[in-house]
Design brief:
six-stranded antiparallel beta sheet, RecF/RecN/SMC_N
Amino acid sequence: MLTNLSIKNFALIEDVSLQLQNDFTIITGETGAGKSILLGALSLIIGKRADLNAVRNPERKCVVEGLFKVSAYQLEAFFTENDLDYEPDTIIRREILPSGKSRAFVNDTPVTLQKLAVLGNQLIDIHSQHETLSLGEVNYQFKIIDALANHKDNLVLFKKKLSVYKSLVNELERLKESQKEAKAAYDYNLFLLTELREVDLKPGIQEDLEEKFKTLNNVEELKENLSASSFHLEQEEVGVLAVLREVKNNLSRLENFSESYKELYERVQSSLLELEDVSEEVARLENKMEDDPEELSLVNEKLQQLYNLQRKHDLESVEDLLALRNELEEKVSSSENAEEELKDLENKIEAAKKQALSIAQALYKARKKEIPNFIKKMEAILAQIGMPDAKLNIEILPQQEFNVHGIDKMNWLLAANKGGSFKEIKKAASGGELSRITLAVKSILAVYGKLPTIIFDEIDTGVSGDVAQKMGDIMLRMSAEMQVIAITHLPQIAAKGKQHLKVYKETQKDITTTNIEQLDEEKRILEIAEMLGGKEKSSSAIAHAKQLLN
């Protein structure tokens, strides 16, 4: 429930603070006095978008702040989920800065407008004149019946299951399109893959083949140099090894004279061992070296295959070819396993459809069950407020296809007068009748919804006299369940309020300001008398006002 509303620098309001009661509050004032400004300020703290033009003085920030008692409405989970401090007396503040930037806070913690709107929708229902026209819209009609059927959890679950089902259907369409393209490219992809499979592709193969080719292509030069190297190493008496062995023998006779000679000896001996190993390796390579034109041709052929494939696919390495081969294998495999993949996805779609359908059928049954009770209550209330012969018929039929509400098609029909035929409610009801029907709906929802606060913006449009009195009685009864605030031009309704606020304009020094005053009993009599008979406030109007208040 809203206990306090503070508005600063908003439209024609300079600085207003209102204390609101937990029952039936009336707001009156002349046309143009600024009642809509009050609603505009309220809409800011429940997440509506801000308009920089609404700032009174653009050099100062605009602040709208509401204090709400929320302890009775099980909102702790919302605060926890959104990392907000939960307070039984929660403060919601909205600021519009001179720069045009808008900020929102819940208990001094910044929040997004989206989060604020979610919280605001659980605290206040602002019924505008536009909402009366919404009565003929299908989404609004479903919203009402679903609130009465109290199957919010099933609605959320259905939307999740429907989302899964639609996602799978879209995936099937994409798969069919993809497989259609893949089928057209299958033969070509298979040909390319076969070419790549014919080559023994593995990392490093190109480097190995190029080294082997270079060796086989230069056998004579390699043998010639290896033979010469072996000759110089192994030649008797003058070969490198023979000379080094002689040096070693000479130094061996000196090694006992000092550490320096010994070190020289060991170094020569180490060099000799290394050279002997080199000599053996040279001899081995020389013996191994053979001219093999057939092997050379085979290696060259393999290399040319690699080079041709790289040129063909505009790739630079064997690793790139391996990646291409893997890609082609996936495409070919996809085409070869297309039937199985389609079948698997179709089975998933069927299972998802069954799950969504099961929940949709439960929604249909719950709505079907609730509708007769709703119609009975509606017709009883309408009879009280000047529509005694009105008959309501709500058609609900299951369809073959899913929609956002399940599988149901709903239509509200009204026969406003005795003997009249049923027509769509938006065509059958006048403006005043739509107002009364809307009030009847809201009064029923008040019992089910447990919403803290509802605000009616001139819901009495198009009615007067006894009907207005009875509409006021309904709002008064609603205020036993929730906080009700009504903006009205009708004295019959204004007299029902427990608290009466008057919105008025005043001009000082060529500056017009909207103010709000809480009326005491004497001022209420004068205000209602003025609503009855104009500014003259005749004695009969004052007497009538007192009668209404009593």
